[in-house]
Specification:
The structure is a single chain. This protein is mostly helical. The longest helix has 50 residues. The protein has 16 helices and ten strands.
Amino acid sequence: MDTYVFTFPPVSYESSSDFTCPTPPTFTSHDYRNPSHAPFPPDAVQPALQPLTPLDSSDGYPALDLALLAISIPPFESSLASKTLSASKSIPSNPNLVPSTTIPSTCLTSGVPGSCSDEISVGKTAGNKLTWAARNPGWPVMQPRQPLSTVEKEHRSAHAASRQVSAAQRKDRDALLNEAIRSLADEFEAKVQVIATTHNVTHEKVKKLVGGHKYYWNPCSTQLANAIIHDKAHEVNEGRVRGEKLTLQQIRDLARVDPKYQGMTQDEKDELLRALTEFHALKNTSVRATNSAAACDVQSTLEHIFKILDGLALCTGIYVCLFATRGHIYDSSQPFWYGTDNVMDFWEDVMDLEPDEIVCKLEQWACMHGKNIEERNSVEGMQRMCACILNSGLRVVAKKKIRINFINFEVAIKVRYGIDLLGWPEGIPFQSPRAITNAEHLRTLRDALKAGTCHWAYMSRQQLEQYQDQLNEQRSAGEVVGKPRKKRSDAGRKRRRTAPGRGLKSATTIDSSSEEGTSLEDDI
C-alpha cells in the first residue's frame, strides 16, 4: 500500500509584521492537510501541523507547498466550484444595482494569483462609483440600449435591405390605392350632391346620415369656436356685476343665432383668434391683485418646481439650490431657500455662509431696492443683462475667459475661435448692448437671448473655410475688414522697454509698433 506523506516548510513571521493569516470560512485546517477528504491509510505518516506562510501582507493568500498544489485533486476543485456557485447565488445579477469585479484565480502549477486564464466574477456592492446608478444601489435603473454584436449588425443590414425592397413595392401599391380612393371620393361627392339637391337637404346632413366618421383630433391650439364664445362673452357680460353674468350655455346659445358670426370672412376669423390669443397671453403675464393671491401663487408654483427639481436630481444626480424672497416690504410671501440633497453644505464649507444668512441678506437687498417691473426693466438693467448673457455664453462655448468684440467681430471671434452668433434679432444694429439706447430694441434682444433663439454656436470646418475665403476676397478687392487700430503717437521712434510695476530698465530700446495695442477684446 502506498504511503501518503505531506510536508510543510517551516517558516517564521517577522517580528515587525502583525499580519494574521486569513483562513477562508469555507475551509478548515483538515481541508488544507487532506483536500480530498479521503481517510488516511493506517500506516501513513502524519506530521504535526505547521503554520502557513503568507506570500505577502498585501496579497492575503496562504503560501502552500508547490508540490502539494501540483497534486491533481479533482474533488477539491469541484468542491470549490460548488461553493463558489452557491455563494454567487446570493449575489444579485443586476450589474447596475450591484457592480461586479473580477478576482484572478490562483494557478495550480505556479501558485501565483492571476497567472492562469480562469477568472472568478464576484459581485461587489461598493466597487464602481463612476455612474449615478452605481452610487445609488437599490434604486430602479433605466437600462440603456446595449451595442449590437457583429451577428446582430449583419442581421440588421439584411433586414434593412429587405425593408428597402418591401418599401419600394409598398409605395407602388399605395400609389395605385390612393388613385382608386381619389376616384371613389370624387364619385361619392358627386352622388352626395345629387341626393342633397334632390331631397332639398344640406350636403353635411347627407354625409352625416351616410355614417362618415372623423378619425383625427383637432390640434391643441386656439379654436374658432372658443374665439367666438370669448368675443360674445365680452360683449354680453361687460358691465355686469358678479352673479348677474350669463352662463357658458347661455352665451353659446346666443352666439349660435347671432348673424354676426354667420358667413365670416377669413380676416374676421383671424381677428377673433388673435383677440383670444392676446387674452391668454395677458392672463399668463398679468400681476396678482392682492398680496395674499400673490403669496398663494408663489407657494403653489414653487412647490411644483420643487417636485420637478427633486425628480431631476434623483434621475440625473445634479445639484440645484434656490433662494427666493419677496420684492417689497409690503409683500406677504416669506423668504426661503431650497436645495437638492446636501448642496447647501457648499455654502457652509466653501463660502463660509449659512443658507439662512444668505436669504436674510437677499431679503434686505430686495426690500431696500423695492423695484417694480418697469424699474427692473430699465435701459441700464437690460444693457447689463444682455452683456452678461452674451459674455457668459461665449465663455461657455469657447471654454476660455474671453469677451465679445463687436468692432472686429469677424476677425477676433469668428475667424480666431470659429464661433458665430446666430439668431440676432432683425432691425437691431449689431453692436454692443451698452451702445443700444432704444428700450424696445433692448427688450427684444433680451427676450431672444433668454429664449435661446439668439445663441452662440461653433462653425463647421467648411463654413469657416468659406468665411475665410470671403474675407480674403474682400481684402484683395481693397475693402477694409473690421476697424483698423489707432496708430501710436510715437510710431517709428525707439522707446525703452519697461517692466510692469517697475521703473525703466537699462538703455535697451525697442521699435514702437504702429498699432496702439494688441488686445482683441472689447469690454461690453
